[in-house]
Design a protein that fits this description.
The complex is a heterodimer.
Chain A (H helix, E strand, L loop, with lengths): L12 E5 L2 E5 L5 H7 L4 E4 L5 E3 L11 E4 L2 E5 L10 E4 L7 H15 L1
Parallel strand pairs in A: 1-7
Antiparallel strand pairs in A: 1-2, 3-4, 5-6, 5-7
Chain B lengths: L19 E7 L3 H12 L4 E4 L29 H16 L3 E4 L2 E9 L4 E8 L10 E9 L3 E3 L12 E3 H11 L6 E7 L3 H10 L3 E7 L10 H5 L2 H16 L4 E3 L1 E8 L3 E8 L12 E4 L3 E6 L1 E3 L2 H5 L4 E3 L5 E3 L12 E3 L9 H27 L11 H5 L3 H20 L15 E3 L4 E2 H9 L6 H8 L12 H8 L14 H10 L11 H4 L4
Parallel strand pairs in B: 1-2, 1-6, 2-3, 6-19, 8-15, 9-10, 9-15, 10-11
Antiparallel strand pairs in B: 4-5, 5-6, 7-16, 12-13, 13-14, 17-18, 20-21
Helix pairs in contact in B: 1-2, 1-8, 3-4, 4-6, 8-10, 11-12, 13-14
The chains are: A alpha+beta, B alpha/beta.
Chain lengths: 111, 522
């Protein structure tokens, strides 16, 4: 019995998604914070489709985000920490530059 | 029980060498926790590795202990059993018998032939950088990596708001909130019931639970259900919840399409015949839905057993599983498997298997060491009489009862025939690479792709981030021509079983930062 239980309602964690505030109870995941802020999809696939949470346990990679500059993070696995800078991922691997080139390749291939 | 997440400040690490343990346990869910506690109680020095921040696995996933979030176990079954296992685990942590590596992935496992030990390569489960210990060694290994919801593609299933049924439950258990407000839960198996119950407990609404099976399959196997009365009591609890919240439970009913543009808004459903065809006129539309949960049984997480070369088989539910003896020993000396990876059977069976495997691993390892010290030559990990003797008659009978129940459950809740006929050419099958059913069907029909590997090469299905973990089952079935109306009730034909084994081979078991490769020895 080492730590004092805190009332989650009194101590929320605050961070940002694309610069806008997001928040959730301590210990909740980045995905939970995004959903608590009304978001359902936060990543765009190569084809431009919106994706959010699917498997919820780190298997499917649909919920990828960039956290503090680290790309390819599964938002269902990462607890939200105070001041995190969360960004939406674009493309199949969540890397905006790679997506750019992949899209170009697709365009060339289709031409 | 400590309310703080367990930590280990005292990992002893000889300079420049990976720390060595008697037994390493991968996974801290029901099977892994039991294995760790049993191995430690039998005198072994144990390492436990889990990708989550705290023990519990998916089944006993719970609010954050580090954050001091209150946890009363209200979303859980067998919570008292968890607390009992956790007390043994924490006692092992406190006196140094158990070393816990939380938020850590095992991305590669090897049996080092020159030293008779297993090497586990570790990486942080999320974020960048390296694990505080990049690699460990262990004389015996217990893999208890569990499983995840098996998926079948449905038109529209890629829309945000559609989730794995287990994912909804995990979200509620971890975060104490819901990922939507009004849900439809669909698929097959008793697992759909606790998911719906958890949603109502958390304040959400369940518009319907759609079960593709008829439930008539239970009738000839009722005696096996009676062998596990706790399941009947649990089931009665769900009936009460469903009545109280007026949740419609529709059997032989499937989702034919998920509706929405940016996220899910509704579903189309139909009643189906046992042959798989939709019954004309039975179609309905449910609107005002912002959450859909899908699950057709479970897929065991087999990367590490397969890396180590264990023999596998296809279980009655169509899942690829590892072959083990009564002690949990696989075909690889010193390697034990416990829980869903030996056959999907639920948490109580997983705990039992973990207890036996952990104890057997400890008895074998310590016995072998004593024999060596006394100058005898010994062959470790071959199901010796010592380990077999350590399995009690009561445990053998309990294993048989739980296995019987699991088999009855799988036969009563098969993967439904006809799911492939409900796909349209535009339906996404591989979510990561956005491969459509049309592309896969072309590769299968025109280009004669008859196994997953060929489908993969021709279409990129299963080549994205998840490496076929989500679409592997469906693509294996499609490439073997299974999943059709009127098709055999066998969920996975022999041809697809081969594909399943192919898709389970993943040289890197978990995603890792490239920096983790830098320190790899021999």
């Amino acid at each position: 019995m080492s730590s004092q239980p805190r009332d989650p309602a009194q101590s929320e964690i605050h961070a940002t998604f694309e610069g806008d505030p997001i928040r959730c109870a301590p210990g909740a995941s980045v995905a939970a914070a995004l959903i608590a802020t009304g978001k359902r999809g936060w990543r765009e696939t190569r084809s431009g489709a919106s994706r959010g949470l699917f498997c919820g346990i780190g298997v499917c990679f649909d919920c990828l985000v960039e956290i503090d500059g680290e790309s390819g993070q599964r938002s269902c696995m990462v607890p939200l920490k105070e001041g995190m800078d969360v960004r939406g991922a674009t493309g199949p691997g969540g890397d905006a530059e790679a997506t750019g080139s992949a899209t170009e390749l697709d365009a060339e291939g289709g031409a | 029980m400590s309310t703080q997440a367990p930590t280990n400040a005292h990992v002893s690490r000889p300079t420049g060498r990976a720390p060595k343990f008697d037994v390493a346990v991968v996974g801290a869910g029901p099977a892994g926790l039991a294995a760790a506690a049993a191995a430690a109680d039998n005198g072994a020095r144990v390492a436990v590795i889990d990708s989550a921040e705290q023990p519990g696995g998916q089944y006993w996933r719970h609010r954050s202990e580090a954050a001091g979030a209150p946890e009363a176990g209200e979303f859980h079954h067998g919570w008292k059993q968890y607390l009992g296992l956790r007390a043994r685990f924490d006692a092992g942590l406190a006196d140094g018998r158990i070393t816990f590596f939380p938020s850590t992935s095992v991305w590669m496992a090897r049996a080092l032939s020159h030293s008779d030990v297993f090497a586990l390569e570790l990486a942080p489960a999320h974020g960048g950088g390296q694990s505080r210990v990049p690699s460990i060694r262990a004389a015996s290994l217990v893999l208890a990596t569990g499983g995840y919801d098996r998926q079948l593609p449905v038109p529209g299933w890629q829309l945000p708001g559609v989730m794995a049924a287990g994912g909804i439950q995990a979200f509620v258990k971890q975060n104490g909130m819901l990922p939507g407000s009004r849900f439809v839960i669909a698929g097959t198996g008793p697992f759909l019931l606790p998911v719906a119950a958890n949603i109502t407990q958390a304040g959400g609404a369940v518009a319907a639970v759609l079960e593709s099976a008829s439930l008539a399959g239970w009738l000839p196997r009722a005696h096996r259900a009676a062998g596990v009365p706790a399941k009947a009591i649990e089931g009665a609890g769900y009936v009460a919840t469903f009545l109280k919240h007026q949740i419609p439970y529709r059997v032989r009913t499937v989702i034919t399409e998920i509706l929405g543009t940016d996220c899910v808004t509704g579903v189309r459903t139909a009643r189906v015949r046992s042959t798989g065809e939709a019954i004309p006129g039975s179609e309905r539309e449910l609107t005002g839905i912002d959450g859909v949960g899908l699950g057709w049984g479970f897929t065991p997480q087999l990367e590490l057993p397969i890396q180590l070369g264990v023999e596998t088989r296809v279980d009655v539910d169509g899942s690829l599983v590892g072959i083990v003896d009564e002690t949990g020993l696989s075909s690889v000396p010193g390697l034990y498997l416990a829980g869903e990876i030996t056959g999907v059977g639920g948490a109580p069976l997983s705990v039992l298997e973990g207890e036996i495997a952990g104890r057997s691993a400890a008895v074998e390892t310590l016995g072998t060491r004593r024999a060596k010290a006394a100058g005898h030559t010994a062959t470790p990990g071959h199901g010796s009489s010592t380990a077999l003797d350590a399995v009690t008659g009561a445990e053998r009978r309990a294993l048989a009862r739980h296995r019987g129940f699991a088999e009855a459950m799988h036969l009563a809740h098969p993967v439904p025939a006809g799911w492939a006929d409900r796909l349209t050419p535009e339906t996404t099958v591989c979510r990561c690479e956005e491969v459509s059913y049309g592309e896969l069907d072309h590769a299968h029909g025109e280009l004669a792709a008859e196994d997953l590997r060929t489908e993969k090469g021709l279409t990129r299905a299963g080549m994205g981030w998840c490496q076929g973990r989500v679409c592997g089952f469906a693509v294996s079935c499609l490439s073997a021509g299974a999943g059709r109306v009127g098709a055999d009730a066998v969920p996975v034909p022999a041809a697809a079983a081969q594909s399943l084994a192919q898709s389970a081979k993943r040289p890197v078991a978990q995603p890792l930062p490239l920096s983790a490769l830098r320190d790899l020895e021999d």
